[in-house]
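Known limitations

Structure tokens in this collection are predictions and should be treated as such. Users comparing against experimental data should check residue numbering before alignment. To illustrate the layout, the record for Protein-S-isoprenylcysteine O-methyltransferase is reproduced below. The input appears on top and the generated tokens appear beneath it.
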Amino acid sequence: YMCSLSLFHYSEYLVTAINNPRSLSLDSFLLNHSFEYNLAALSSWVEFTLEKFIWPEMKQITWLSTVGLLMVIFGDCLRKAAMLTAGSNFNHIVQNEKSDTHTLVTSGVYGWFRHPSYVGWFYWSIGTQVLLCNPICVVGYTLASWRFFRERIEEEEITLIHFFGEEYLEYKKKVPSGLPLIRGVKVEL
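Generated tokens:
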């Protein structure tokens, strides 16, 4: 678990350094993502520790930890593939102004999902809790991540429609968001 957590944050910085060095800062590690993110991490450590003492056999379900590890690997690989595919178009902060170099990326993993980096993070975060056999945090992470990405995708898609207009709307019709029950911003014509 600690290795996957460290690798995730280090690789966020590394891929940003490769793809978009102009936006590189200590924030690129995503260690100070938000109060909620830090609270979620702390909650998972507390849950793991308490359950390890109260029900140690709960933390020894090898097949479940293996499923969690596979989710972590899949999620992180998908996220990094999205970052690398988007290149300098990827930024940890939703951009409000279109730069001259902004292009709509629809190839690679963006041909599978409109928001592959969010899909990757979603499954990575839930996978960390499955890996730890933390039933309470599995539910909490799933609900919190889903809600966060539902709001974030709506916000981002408004910007993408503003930047790319009909080109983005056509892409949106063809490619799913990638997250369960999240369709993105509703557009009335």
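For this record: The domain at 1-17+35-174 is CATH 1.20.120.1630 (Four Helix Bundle (Hemerythrin (Met), subunit A)). Helices lie at 2-19, 35-54, 62-86, 116-131, 135-164, 166-174. Please report discrepancies through the issue tracker.
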